[in-house]
């Protein structure tokens, strides 16, 4: 549970892993320069090789590196290539083989798949520390002392040599590197050290490496900054949201200052940070700007509901033991990333430098007590006591990037690895294409996050098969961000069209429609955080129940505006949404196309049997 909470709360680059049961073939003592027995396999073969702890010293200690080799499924024809895949983390990789098999799909027919556990993780000489607890920073220094000076070699620059040794042991002339999230860091480390063995590169959700070759963006300040950027970006296409006072970061800053001045027990700091971090969630993207403005204006209900949704998605940590993977993660991130302190300095000097960074507003608009206290430290704090005495940039100085087909994909609203960094990395390759997916999130190419993610997965498959980099127009932009939450019916802009008599009826129809749309928003295909909701209160009263088996949202006395109770149900599926509602003594039937990025929605229906066709403006 701790690792899950860390990944979700801090937007760490955690891979999706699936258990497997393949038994490894352990070739202990085998040299990386000999041909491995798995090279002749016709089905999955798990094996190991022995490599130097320090590749600069051939006589150094030997460690074990484990891999999974999956030959192409069509063995009647020669392979057209080999995909070397890493899911991110940094974490074990072999357990993600089933995930890659599904994601690659038909690519596997003619291409081999190679997955290697990075040293220090999974089956590759794993680093573990008894008692390591990221909530207790003292245990991190104790872990580093326990592991000793050898931890300086559990880094991406050394891992790149391991990958090449496995490639050589299997007799693979060139690889196509598929890197997801932190897997793109491993990709950069490999392709810049061994460009001659690279046939193509596919990068999804890219870790940015600076001019000095080190990774950036793991401090608490990064998700804060990226989250406020995302709030602006979901707001920009929406006319009601654009008319809100000030820019989104300014409004959020006002909210944070207000909560510090007048703490609200219903809104813990952790949840405000999570709202920022998960702007790609369709409900948070749709509602956060308007909810912040509503709270500043004295209407707390919309923001309380978002906080409650997050608490339901991320319940408080249950105190289970920390994951043994965390020592390996620390070894990589702390050694090959930039932080607001000197890598070569002592822990005490680092602490002073980090304090100066905080004092200078490095976490603005949050204070260190807000952010560090809510998140238990974060990478800035965790890496303070971790030694990094050996230069270990992910990308070596004056690196040569291979002149091969490269496709880089990044979600627009990815707050972990934002697209600006992906574009900068793409620009270093002579033949790279960069595609930024509107409203897209992190790790899209696995195809797990709804229709847009499946579109990105198909794009990935096409590239790996034919190096086709044409943009198919994948997009997760299927809503317009709200500008306001009306409190009463008279605040609702009336529906206008044929069959509605006057402004009073128009407001009744629009308010009832707004109630139905507000409830159905929790079943947006990109509302991943709310997918587990079974029921929740209406915004201002009543109860909403989600009947996913039958594709219905059931409303009982639901009040989206305080003076109008709505009872009935909304049906949804592959086509239009329909609603049958009882409201204010009337029967209302509605039909519309849901989940569209529109400034106004065309709604057909009947009011007490009388037909109408109207346009309902977004609010």
What does this structure look like?
The chain has 619 residues and is of the alpha/beta class. The protein has a domain at 489-617. The chain is 33% helix and 18% strand. It has helices spanning 2-10, 97-104, 138-147, 156-169, 183-193, 221-235, 239-242, 248-261, 269-277, 282-296, 301-313, 325-335, 347-359, 368-375, 378-382, 419-426, 451-466, 502-520; strands at 24-25, 45-52, 62-70, 81-86, 111-116, 175-180, 198-204, 406-411, 432-437, 496-498, 535-537, 543-547, 552-558, 566-571, 577-583, 586-592, 600-607, 610-617. A 9-stranded mixed beta sheet has the order 1-2-3-5-4-6-7-8-9, with helices on both faces. Helix 4 (156-169) crosses helix 5 (183-193), helix 6 crosses helix 10 and helix 10 runs antiparallel to helix 11 (301-313). The protein is globular and about 85 Å long. The relative contact order is 0.11. The model is unreliable at 1-12, 14-24 and 26-32 (pLDDT under 50).
Can you describe this structure in just a few lines?
The protein has helices spanning 2-10, 97-104, 138-147, 156-169, 183-193, 221-235, 239-242, 248-261, 269-277, 282-296, 301-313, 325-335, 347-359, 368-375, 378-382, 419-426, 451-466, 502-520; strands at residues 24-25, 45-52, 62-70, 81-86, 111-116, 175-180, 198-204, 406-411, 432-437, 496-498, 535-537, 543-547, 552-558, 566-571, 577-583, 586-592, 600-607, 610-617. The protein is of the alpha/beta class and 619 residues long.
């Amino acid at each position: 549970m701790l690792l899950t909470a860390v990944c979700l709360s801090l937007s760490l680059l955690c891979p999706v892993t699936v258990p497997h049961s393949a038994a490894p073939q352990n070739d202990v003592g085998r040299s990386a320069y000999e041909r491995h027995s798995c090279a002749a396999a016709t089905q999955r073969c798990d094996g190991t090789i022995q490599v130097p702890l320090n590749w600069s010293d051939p006589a150094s200690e030997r460690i074990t590196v484990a891999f999974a080799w999956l030959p192409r499924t069509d063995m009647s024809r020669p392979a057209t290539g080999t995909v070397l895949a890493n899911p991110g983390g940094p974490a074990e990789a072999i357990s993600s083989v089933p995930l890659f098999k599904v994601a690659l799909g038909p690519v596997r027919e003619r291409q081999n798949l190679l997955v290697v556990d990075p040293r220090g993780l999974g089956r590759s000489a794993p680093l573990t520390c008894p008692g390591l607890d990221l909530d207790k920073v003292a245990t991190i220094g104790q872990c580093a002392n326990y592991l000793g000076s050898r931890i300086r070699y559990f880094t991406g620059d050394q891992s790149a040599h391991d990958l090449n040794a496995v490639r050589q042991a299997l007799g693979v002339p060139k690889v196509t590197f598929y890197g997801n999230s932190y897997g793109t860091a491993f990709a950069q480390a490999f392709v810049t050290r061994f460009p001659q063995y690279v046939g193509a590169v596919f990068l999804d959700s890219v870790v940015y490496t600076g001019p000095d070759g080190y990774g950036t963006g793991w401090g608490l300040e990064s998700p804060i900054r990226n989250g406020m950027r995302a709030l602006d970006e979901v707001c920009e296409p929406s006319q009601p949201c654009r008319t809100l006072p000030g820019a989104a970061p300014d409004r959020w800053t006002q909210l944070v200052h207000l909560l510090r001045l007048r703490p609200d027990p219903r809104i813990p700091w952790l949840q405000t940070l999570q709202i920022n971090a998960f702007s790609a969630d369709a409900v948070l993207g749709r509602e956060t700007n308007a909810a912040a403005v509503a709270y500043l204006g004295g209407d707390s209900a919309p923001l309380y509901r978002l906080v409650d949704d997050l608490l339901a998605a991320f319940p408080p940590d249950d105190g289970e033991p920390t994951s043994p993977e965390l020592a390996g993660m620390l070894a990589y991130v702390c050694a090959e990333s930039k932080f607001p302190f000197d890598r070569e300095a002592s822990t005490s000097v680092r602490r002073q430098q980090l304090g100066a960074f905080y004092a200078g507003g490095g976490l603005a608009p949050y204070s260190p007590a807000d952010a560090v206290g809510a998140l238990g430290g974060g990478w800035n704090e965790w890496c303070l006591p971790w030694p990094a005495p050996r230069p270990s940039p992910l990308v070596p100085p004056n690196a040569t990037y291979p002149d091969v087909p490269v496709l880089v994909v990044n979600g627009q609203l990815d707050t972990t690895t934002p697209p600006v960094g992906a574009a900068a990395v793409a620009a270093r390759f002579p033949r790279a294409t960069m595609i930024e997916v509107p409203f897209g999130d992190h790790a899209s190419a696995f195809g797990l996050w709804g229709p847009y993610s499946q579109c990105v997965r198909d794009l990935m498959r096409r590239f790996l098969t034919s190096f086709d980099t044409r943009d198919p127009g994948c997009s997760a932009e299927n809503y317009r961000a709200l500008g306001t939450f009306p409190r009463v019916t008279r605040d609702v802009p009336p529906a206008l069209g044929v069959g509605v008599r006057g402004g009073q009826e128009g407001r009744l129809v629009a308010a009832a429609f707004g109630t139905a749309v507000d409830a159905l928003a929790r079943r947006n295909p990109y509302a991943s955080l709310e997918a587990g909701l079974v029921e929740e209160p209406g915004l201002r009263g009543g109860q909403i129940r989600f009947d996913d088996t039958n594709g219905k949202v059931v409303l009982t006395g639901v009040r989206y505006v305080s003076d109008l109770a709505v009872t009935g149900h909304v049906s949804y599926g592959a086509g239009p949404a329909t609603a049958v509602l009882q409201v204010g003594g009337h029967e209302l039937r509605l039909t519309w196309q849901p989940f569209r990025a529109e400034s106004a929605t065309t709604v057909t229906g009947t009011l007490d049997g009388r037909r109408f066709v109207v346009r309902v403006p977004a609010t």
